[in-house]
What we know:
The structure holds 3 protein chains of 3 kinds. By secondary structure, chain A is of the alpha/beta class. Chain A has 14 helices and 26 strands. In chain A, α4 packs across α5 (207-219) and α9 crosses α12. The N and C termini of chain A lie far apart (79 Å). By secondary structure, chain B is an alpha/beta fold.
Amino acid sequence: MTISKTSGLSLAAVAALSAFFLLLPEPKPPTNSFVLGPVQVFDGHQVLPERQYIEVRQGFIHSISKQRPDTEAPVVDSQNPDGSPQWLIPGLIDAHVHSWGNAQQQQLSFGVTSAIDLFSAVAQLPERKTSRDDITQAQQSDLWSAGTLVTAPKGHGTQYGMHIPVFNAPDEADAFVAARKAEGSDFIKIVYQSERAIYKSMPSISRNSLQAVIAAAHRQQLKAVVHIAEQASAMDAVEAGADGLVHSFFDSRINDRLLQALKRHDVFVIPTMTVYEAAVRGVSAQQVLLDQTALDLPVAARAALSSSRNPRIPAALYQNLIDNTRAMHQAGIRLLAGTDAPNAGTYHGLSMVLELTLLQEAGLSLLEALHCATAAPAQAFDLPKRGRIAVGQRADFLLMPRLQQPTDLLSAQVFKNGQRVDINRHPPQRPAVKAGALADFSHSDQPLQGAAFAASSDQMMQGKSSASLTLQPQNSPASLQVNGKLVPGAAYPWAGVAWSAAADYQQGLDFSAISRLQFQVRGSAGTYRLLAFSEGNQRPAEVSFAVTADWQPLEISLSQLSGIDPSRLSMLVWTANPTPQAHDFTLELAEIKLLANSGQ
Amino acid sequence: MTEPLIRIRQLSHSYGKAPVLHQLSAELYGGEIIAVLGANGAGKTTLLQLMLGLLSQQQGEITILGQAPSQIRRAPQLSGQLGVMLQQASLPGQLTVLEQLRLFSAYYPAPLPLQTLIERFGLQSFLQQRCSSLSGGQRQSLLLALALLGQPKILFLDEPTVGMDVEARQRFWQLIRTARAEGLCILLTTHYLEEADALADRILLLKDGHFIADTSPTALKTGLSQRQIRCRSSLPLNVLQQLPGVSAVQHWPNQQVQISSSQVEDCLRQLLQQDALLCDLTVSAASLEQAFLQLTTTAETH
Amino acid sequence: MNNPWLSLSQRIALYKTEAEMDLKTLWRTPGFILPCLAFPVLFYLLFGVMLSKGQHAEYLLVSYAAFGVMGPALFNFGANVATERAQGWLTLKQISPAPIGSWLFGKTLSCLLLALLIILLLFVCAGAIAGVRLYTSQWLQLAGVLLLGTIPFCLLGLTLGLTLSAKSAPATINLIYLPLAFLGGLWLPLQLLPSALQQLALVLPSYHLGQLGYAVIGKDRGEPFWVNVAVLVLYSLIFIWLATRRFRAQSQDRR
């Protein structure tokens, strides 16, 4: 009798434990099999004539039919309240990005399901391949990468502080391409400027080198695309056998000879209207996106898209780009939609809406522009099973109520690998700074909030300036002294001291509750600048201030720092201004305080 | 002649350089209670630990049930024939008496039934109490029950009635006698002379590591040359001292005297002749204490 | 000598009884049970849920579960055995025909059941309060890994219990338990400790237990799992050897 009592108890215990474990909550299973319909389909090339039902199985498009498939799979509702069918288009492909951090997640949140990266750190390449092969992932876009670009010593690409191998002579071509392939490059990107270009920017590889690299890439079964900035360089690239140009040009109107060459060699062009428009004309972001209050754009996006015109370039030159694009389109040359995010004036994912709008401005219809953002880049870069709505393709698509203008894309449901993406366009909240002193220089040269004060100069970007810090606790007020030398010549010369919010110089802190920044300053007489950076923004806000040999109190209102997101402020830099000649300077800061709205 | 259950031959033991036991020899049989009697520090516990295999032997031989103690530790068939009550054993406090009995019973293939144990050892009244809350006497009863529940052949008791009151001790002794009646060989260490006197069939007197006596209590006491005569007598001291075999005379003001004599019968005859008014006469056998003291003193002088 | 002392069914009954009695003993010692159960749960709710706003709820669940299951193993085998030794109870058992295996089994089973209870309590907190979502296979794997992983700590506790005095045992074991957990990276993530301590962690069993747990949720440091298992097995063997030696030596103990 005792034994059966134990057995009974054991059985009961096993049953209870089983029930317990089965009841513990599980993650929502990814449902990547379902039926969708009836929808109006733009398949990447054209609108299908009738309403369709799409069946997705295990992340792939299984069938497209006019009748609802007879299956047990769940059905996704695709009708508008008024009974009209919603629109289904392939997920967008941004043909020109530079991706790091959470760019891939951000892209996906705006409907960009695949992207072409045209230069970033090679360490990320293996993980990108694994991720895009993973049919179960729905967290981020799929990325194909150039890896390290091909550029001359001190050429474009070497100024970003990343140490990269450079290309010296044509006979290096095979080895250089093989090395890129081994690192994981999906294709080869080359930076080239013709000797005939009028405005020379940075050193470039020679025309012979260009030909050699393109030939080597083709021998090793890799496509070769070329970064050019003027018509002469474009011509050289096409004649050297390039498969595509990753920028267009606005230095001149395109001539027939180039048009025919592009057509004859079937070269594709990525005009990157967005980044040029922001730099040269600088109105579209405001009109198309920022003025539309109905769009719930994250603060960081608003900051990134705010005006970033380069005043040294005549705004009228943008018309050249419009005309050139129109001419290419009319000549039947393949155009791909690419934003060149995250350069100034762009925001990963969101800027595709602008690119489509700007392509429309250049004469393409909405559907033609969408083709440039879906089937065309997939075909140009041989992206497997992407870019179209067709049987066997990945179930990457956008479902939206209307399709009349590019901003309609922002209200789409996004599907990646057959799973509905939980769209979150707002980056995570950062911890808030508190009103009060930012530092106590009588005790330490390290800040009371944030990560560190450090000497900062353009040396990290191959510049020649320098700076060093000395704590002066014995002064009254106790101060932090910068001794620096500002040497002109770099693209963005600076030297001074930087306060960083986080150790990685990327993450920011939330300054929303702060209204003013107060500090005392003295030093070598002259004008200086305070730069403020926010997360993900390349371009800082700048405020100038004057310095004399005597202590002066200064107060800067945070509203003066335009174009950055105060809820994720990542760096403050006090820097000297460049003068025609190199000069030494001393700058002392004290009593740095953050003041809140209520006046502390 | 039955085989001895326990045999010790020329057993010696030292702690480091200090010798504790010298050439001890003895044979112990079933159905008898053997008390190892000695002062504290005489080596009783060492002897017990050696027999239980808790100390490794140095010199000499111990055979229990035909095997060495180290062999017994390894074989439950053998160790199950031994019951042990150790002096320092206290019980894990959180289990009840009944649970403790059940646990120990599980160690044996044929233990005494629980009901028998409860009745025999008088555990009924505190059966459900936690072991930590037992009185000294209750605890010892339980420990004895645990020692005997496996129906062993040999029972070892190490100072089992320390701290018990008179009633509890008497009850305990009765249980021991019952066990003897069932044929057990019972080895008991004690420093209570009274206990050895009351219980033991044989006393092994342990002094300075030697067995200076191995005999029954009666024989011990009878072997004593001195006995006491107490009476009230008006005979003067010097007369008393001249009586046959007298070694000592004590007297008190009320004419009470105490005479220690090795020839008590002769002494008595003369006393009665010489003092017709003698009254309150008692003749007592020497107490074990006297025997003990005498023996140990004698041992010293040798 | 070929007949076994106890028949098979008697042996099974003995193992059951030993386990039952050790469980009862533990259960009736609130000073033992309550801290064992309460501390991991409280720490998890405080650090895993409230202070970290649930961002690291999964990671901290593994941390505090590993910390929690080490407790009963070290204290039941450690402090309790030291007490049993001091009381002379262990000696009595050694002299009796009781197999030492049943005593070890009883203690191990009660440790495992207590560990299981701690795990279940933490799982409930994780699932119901902290919003942790794992596949059923992951919940089961995590529970299994942690239960198995208590064995080396049971053996460590046993070695300590046979070595330490009853008075010093609880304090000494705490001095071992808490640093072992901390230096193994179960309180703060290892990356936050100085690199010298990070190196030290690699030889600690608590670190390897933690890594096996983190691997279930994909947050381990990437070592192959068999390395962690091998270290725990190695420690188990070392402690078995030490405990056996202590056991034999202490049965030759003088009074």
